[in-house]
Write a structure and sequence with these properties.
Blueprint: E1 2-8, E2 13-20, H1 23-40, H2 45-61, H3 63-74, H4 78-96, E3 106-109, E4 112-120, E5 123-127, H5 133-146, E6 150-154, H6 161-172, E7 180-182, H7 187-196, E8 200-206, H8 209-220, E9 225-229, E10 235-238, H9 244-256, E11 268-272, H10 276-288, H11 308-318, E12 322-326, E13 340-343, H12 350-353, E14 360-366, H13 369-377, E15 385-388, H14 392-401, E16 408-409, E17 428-429, E18 442-450
Parallel strand pairs: 5-6, 5-8, 6-7, 8-9, 10-11, 10-15, 11-14, 13-14, 15-16
Antiparallel strand pairs: 1-2, 3-4, 4-18, 9-17, 12-13
Helix pairs in contact: 1-7, 2-4, 3-4, 3-6, 4-5, 9-10
Bound molecules: nicotinamide-adenine-dinucleotide.
């Protein structure tokens, strides 16, 4: 079998390799998952809940190990990586409550009784990107397993290690063989088989918009269910009446967290023109103070970019743009890039329109509320965004006006496992997390029972 090198992005050094599975191994794993489905769906709800809680507990026992692995493989700061491993535990615990509550309905009809069942789909294929290897895996596998499906999961080529470890921990927790299988390999091979293989009844894809479109088109052939979580170009809108100090202090975290490699990054900053200059003067020290360091240090707020190729792509956006100011980044080995703030002169500027997926913030002034909403919506994406104002009516009007799946007022919160997460427009299709995500891993079956004698 081929193998694929795993590189530490903070040093650029190869430190291990993992197998790159081919079509034969992928088909074998899917077929094992199909066989395991027959018995997993029959596991009593209380027992399935108990197994998921045990899986959560085993993850909890390995938080430090998983976090250290993510720091090394993905360059995430140790603080973020601990949160990410903890998020897998929490999402498992949250959906462990579901098997015993997955009720259908009893619908009044003449001539008998009518009941509905939420049936599991079968094998679910989950395709994960490199930017958040652990949480994005968990948002798919936890509700899928809770609803009675079995799961095959493909991590991104460059960040497979934590997913592979989670697959081992599932077995350690007592999940039966074949219920949750991690299959590292190429998207065009393993991921493509998830789309093509008829036993896979749903594909959850998180990644770039172009690949998401091709997956949706491929799934159409078998009317396969699909959830898409795609790109973003989210706006952080600061009104003149806001707590400007707090908005400026938190804006760097809203875009530079995970080195900007975050689909929810608030990468477009819209500032009301009456406070534009003042806001930039508050933002500059906050950007310069953002600590870009060895991600293993507890003090690090940002680590390196994922790869040399990605660093080149990010740099291509800053070349001829007007730079307002930048922060600091280490030199030497590794794929470092400093937090960078660019002034957008027009809404056609490339850095204003395209998803940079790096630590680059584009800034533009706006005149009034109507213009802020118009500029925020002038994008093919609609994933996330923030609104800073002390006016409650305005906060609600702008929240309703911005076409985006996840908005936060006076904060930069996007992902909370209790609430739905997903994108509008070309940012995606369907919702993950929250109370309803479970149902997207089921089909409704309606049964009518005649009471005629
Ligand atoms: P990508 O689309 O290149 O890859 C994502 C995953 O898809 C990887 O596992 C890859 O191997 C696989 N893949 C690639 N080609 C495939 C194919 N033809 N068939 C099946 N699978 C295939 O994206 P990326 O570069 O890994 O991730 C960055 C992108 O992901 C960004 O655009 C970002 O916005 C997006 N993203 C979105 C969310 C969200 O929730 N909306 C979250 C994280 C990342």
């Amino acid at each position: 079998m081929d193998s694929s090198d795993v590189i530490n992005p903070a040093t650029g050094a190869v430190f291990t390799a993992v197998p790159a599975n081919g079509v034969t191994e992928t088909d074998a794993a899917i077929e094992r998952a199909q066989r395991a489905f027959m018995s997993w769906r029959e596991v009593a709800p209380g027992d399935r809940a108990r197994l998921l809680r045990r899986f959560a507990a085993v993850v909890d026992d390995h938080i430090e190990e998983l976090a250290a692995l993510e720091v090394r493989n993905s360059g995430h700061t140790i603080g973020n990586a601990r949160w990410e491993a903890g998020n897998v535990r929490d999402v498992l615990d949250y959906y462990a409550g579901a098997p015993e509550r997955l009720s259908g309905r009893q619908i009044p009809v003449p001539g008998g009784i009518d009941v509905t069942f939420h049936e599991p789909l079968g094998v679910v294929g989950i395709i994960v990107p490199w930017n958040f290897p652990m949480p994005i895996a968990g948002w798919g596998f936890a509700p899928a397993l809770a609803a009675g499906n079995t799961v095959v999961l493909k991590p991104a080529e460059v960040t497979p290690l934590t997913a592979i470890r989670l697959g081992e921990l599932a077995l350690e927790a007592g999940l039966p063989e074949g219920v949750f299988t991690v299959i590292p390999g190429k998207g065009s091979v393993v991921g493509q088989r998830f789309v093509e293989h008829p036993a896979v009844r749903k594909v959850c894809f998180t990644g770039s918009t172009p690949v998401g479109k091709s997956i949706m088109a491929g799934c159409a052939d078998q009317v396969k269910r699909v959830t898409l979580e795609l790109g973003g170009k989210s706006a952080n809108i600061v009104f003149a009446d806001a707590d400007l100090e707090r908005a400026a202090a938190t804006a760097p975290g809203g875009v530079f967290d995970n080195a900007g490699q975050d689909c929810c990054a608030r990468s477009r900053l819209l500032v009301q023109e009456s406070v534009y200059e003042r806001f930039l003067s508050l933002l500059e020290p906050a950007v310069k103070a953002f600590r870009v360091q060895d991600p293993a240090l507890d003090t690090a707020e940002m680590g390196p970019l994922i790869s040399a190729a990605h660093r080149d792509k990010v740099a291509s956006y800053t070349g001829d743009a007007e730079v307002a100011f930048t922060g600091e980044a280490p030199g030497g080995d590794g794929w470092w890039f400093p937090p960078t703030v660019l002034l957008a002169r027009s809404s056609s500027d490339r850095h204003w329109r395209e998803e940079v997926f790096g630590p680059v913030l584009s800034v533009m002034p706006f005149h009034d509320e109507a213009e802020a909403i118009e500029l925020a919506n002038d994008t093919e994406y609609g994933l996330s965004g923030s609104i800073w104002t002390r006016d409650l009516g305005r906060a609600l009007r702008v929240s309703r006006g911005v076409q985006s799946g996840n908005l936060s007022v006076n904060s930069h919160s996007s992902v909370r496992y209790w609430t739905p997460f997903g994108g509008m427009k070309q940012s995606g299709l369907g919702r993950e997390l929250g109370p309803d995500a479970l149902l997207s891993f089921t089909d409704v079956k309606n049964v009518f029972i005649s009471t005629d004698s």
